[in-house]
Structures are given as C-alpha cells and as structure tokens.
Amino acid sequence: MSLHGDYDSQNIFAQIIRGDAPCYKLYEDDDVLAFLDVFPQSYGHSLVIPKRSAARNMLDIDSESLCKVMQVVQKITRALVDELQPAGVQVAQFNGAPAGQTVFHIHMHVIPRFAGEDLGIHASAKADAAELEALQARLVTRLKA
Ligand code: 5GP
C-alpha cells in the first residue's frame, strides 16, 4: 500500500472502532480509542487511534483529530511508565508499507522499552490472552487513578 489511496473501511482498526472486532481496550472517549497491541513488541505495547477520522496516515488526518490522539498518547505513556516502570518509551507511527505500516488506519504505537530488549518494529508472536487481560486490568486501573 502506498502513501496515497482510498481508506478501506474493512481494515481491522475500523472493525475495532465499530465493535465488529474485539480489543483489549485501555481508554476511550468520543474521539480516540487506545488498546493493547495483540502482537506486542514489548510488554505494554499500546496503540492509539482516532475514531472519527477515516485517515490512513499522517497526510490524511486533520490537525484537530491528530491533537486529540496525541493527548491520549501522552496519557497512555504516563500510565505505562507509572505502572510498568520501563527504562524508556518509544512513540512511533509509520506511513505506507515501505515505512513499515501494515494497518491502514492511522495509529500511534506507544512501546515501553526495557533494558536489554531488542528494538524490533514488528513482533512475530501473538500475546497470550490471559496475559493481555491481566495487563489491561492493571492499566485501566492506573488510568482511572
Ligand atoms: P503498523 O505496522 O501498521 O504500524 O502497526 C500495526 C499494528 O497493529 C502492529 O503492531 C500489529 O501487531 C497490530 N495489530 C494487527 N492486527 C491487530 C489486531 O487484530 N488487534 C490488535 N490489537 N492489534 C493488531
């Protein structure tokens, strides 16, 4: 998929927004949804997406929606740091397949980084459902604190 093209309303994140596919939700408001990545690059890897903007990437999204997404990125980053105490946090966003994008609804990755771990950009393994559920519960509690 190139940088340019039509938005596909059947992409997995559009399905999650509509409630047609499940997610491990961390936070939601009228405009933004945050949830755990099911193929995490690290423990706590989270995704933040706009709900109302049918944008594939940074070129498409309106600035107001982008600002709302970034406010939630900061909220999630703070919760991850407080709860998991990583050594660092990577905030990443890819535009177009050659840049590493695989899901064509704009999203921000928030990836806690722990000392000694590899900095891969794609994980090969799906996380264990029970582990994701337990992590979701910890982070939701932290976000409400
Ligand atoms: P991209 O490579 O497009 O920047 O990132 C897409 C991300 O979505 C990847 O980190 C991938 O693991 C994640 N992902 C793909 N399918 C699903 C899914 O069904 N649910 C969730 N929560 N994450 C997904």
Automatic annotation (TrEMBL):
CDD domains: HINT_subgroup. Gene3D superfamilies: HIT-like. One of its GO terms (biological process) is nucleotide metabolic process. Residues 12-121 form the HIT domain. GO terms for molecular function: catalytic activity. Coiled coil: none annotated. A motif (Histidine triad motif) lies at residues 105-109. PROSITE patterns: HIT_2 (PS51084). Pfam families: HIT. PANTHER family: ADENOSINE 5'-MONOPHOSPHORAMIDASE HNT1, HIT FAMILY PROTEIN 1. This is Histidine triad (HIT) family protein. It comes from Pseudomonas segetis.
